[in-house]
Amino acid sequence: MTRTTSKKLFDRARKVIPGGVNSPVRAYGSVSLDPPFIIRGRGSKVYDVDGNEYIDYVGSWGPMILGHAHPAIVEAVRDRVARGASFGAPTILEIEMAEEINAALPSIEMVRMVNSGTEATMSAIRLARGYTKRKKIIKFAGCYHGHVDYLLVEAGSGAMTFGVPDSAGVPEEFTRNTLSATYNDLNSIDTLIKDCGDEIAAIIVEPVAGNMGTIPPRPGFLQGLRERCSKHGIVLIFDEVMTGFRVAYGGAQILYDIKPDITCLGKIIGGGLPVGAFGGKREIMECLSPLGSVYQAGTLSGNPLAMAAGLVTLRTLKNENPYPKLEKNSAYLGDGIDALLTEHNIPHVCNRVGSMLCTYFTNTPVDNYDDAKTADCERFTKYFTAMLNQGIYLAPSQFEAGFISAAHSQDDLDRTLDAVKMALESI
Ligand SMILES: *Cc1c(COP(=O)(O)O)cnc(C)c1O
Description:
The strands form 3 sheets. The chain has a 7-stranded mixed sheet with strand order 4-10-9-8-7-5-6, with helices on both faces. Strands 1-2-3-13 form a 4-stranded mixed sheet. The chain has helices at about 5-15, 70-80, 90-105, 115-130, 170-175, 185-195, 220-230, 250-255, 280-285, 305-320, 325-345, 370, 375-390, 410-425; strands at about 40, 45-50, 55, 110-115, 135-140, 180, 200-205, 235-240, 260-265, 275-280, 350-355, 355-360, 390-395, 400-405. It has about 425 residues and is an alpha/beta fold. The protein is about 35% helix and about 15% strand.
């Protein structure tokens, strides 16, 4: 498999776009390769400019749960764009989208649309601070909530420390109110609450962590957060940008039966178009401008094309209910990989929740960020390279979740397992 045209394009891109990409992980830096330039996608496959076909487990990092170029989405967007792309005025589509989301997630009574997951988390935190009139927030090490200044704090192993920014350009003053806790560890939360519980506006959490691989919540973890937030007047924010309509119709809060106060959404609800949303209890949401004093706005928010693509996606998911099939196929693939690695005596942990999965090259159970960091990234790079060269398109990092779509066939899964078998010879 050659990628000479992609290589030429990457050289050209790097002259005019920082790193040649509009989002860093696409540059393949952590696997020391040049990325394929994708020219089209259909169903479970993507195709690059050199004519190579790949079985896609990235799915645009989550949104493409129905596969690429789903006919109903294509038609809906085509139909809308012919009638005008944006008006910056109220449309019926926005009501329908809000009704669809509110019906799917019982914790949401009102919802506001934005344009990305980052905007959703940023706005949710501002709203929680406005509502509680408190400043501090807690996030978990290894959870990603978009590139919001004060959420770019990973804090690594030293839980219960005050936040140190991960990025240049973020003054320490901006992250001073961000406290970091350990995923799946309620003790780390209790310590923070004991220190300053009445100053904490919100706890934000990925209910299934999907940005340090895939880490399921341990039994009682989410429930424990819910109880502590209720007791101390803290707003519980579920960042379901990845898990919403992925791990279940609705999301992780349906799967684990926990009601957060605010939920952030994105990815799937846009069907591949740029979108985000945050919603929750009426009492909290009514603090938003123009009703309340928490300002929030967006020129393209509720954009008709994004609403059309998102609505068709949600309705298709509701009507066709692909979730049992996604579960079955994901278990087949995850268990298959697990068995092959075991056979070859390669230390590994396969974590999976529904159609989100991650294979870590480690022998430590992975429950939090420190556990995830024990993975052997060099071995991952070899595995990734071998898979890519056999036409299997995985996320180019040990710490990303893989996604299966409703378009993946049994043949796709078997071909992938054959590729894993081959890859294991060289890692
Ligand atoms: C992708 C993601 C975001 C950020 O969304 P963008 O649309 O990239 O800004 C936030 N939170 C989680 C959990 C995500 O997976």
